[in-house]
Amino acid sequence: MEKEKEETVNKKAEEGKKKKRTSLKSILGGDILATDFFRRQTKLLVLIMVFIIFYIHNRYASQQQQIEIDRLKKELIDIKYDALTRSSELMEKSRQSRIEEYISSKESDLQTSTNPPYLIK
């Protein structure tokens, strides 16, 4: 009887030593995933992995959006400068002196009016 008790105590002690001992070989070999702790926490570990994948995806998507925002800001600045240039060119071409020069160079019969404008009632 006592011998059986000693054997069971020794077996439990050996099992306890085996459970507590985690070697690099068991980690790299994947044996650690078969332990009781990992079996009980499978759902939690899967949930954590899903959150990690979700986090990585969100970070990647936000970086892509930030790159797109920067590109659009640069494009907007270029368009604003182009619009400003065209506006100044239009103002220059629509001045009365420039229009008179253009008409005189085309040898047209048009002339600048010498009479001031008046209102029709």
From TrEMBL:
The keyword Thylakoid does not apply. Residues 1-17 have a biased composition (Basic and acidic residues). InterPro entries: FtsL-like. Residues 1-21, 102-121 are annotated as: Disordered. The chain crosses the membrane at residues 44-61. Residues 110-121 have a biased composition (Polar residues). Keywords: Membrane, Transmembrane, Transmembrane helix. It comes from the Bacteria. This is Cell division protein FtsL.
